[in-house]
Amino acid sequence: MDSLRAALTWVKDLLDWLPDAAVALLVLAIAVLIALALHRWARKLVRRALAGRYPYLFSTFTQTRGVSRLALLILAVMVAIPLAPLRPETAELLARLLGMAVIGLIGWGAIIALHIAADLYLRRFRLDIDDNLLARKHNTQVRVLSRTIDVLLVMLTLSAALMTFPAVRQYGLSLFASAGVAGIVAGLAARPVLSNLMAGVQLAMTQPIRLYDAVFVENEYGTVEEITSTYVVVKLWDLRRMIVPLTYFIEKPFQNWTREMTALVGSVMIYVDYAAPVGIIREKLNEILKQSDKWDGKTAALQVTDFKEGTMELRCLMSARSAAQTFDLRCEVREKLIAFLQKNHPEALPHSRQISFRDSPEPESAKSTTRKGVDRRSG
Question: Would you say 325 and 297 are in contact if contact means Cβ atoms under 8 Å apart?
Answer without folding.
Answer: no
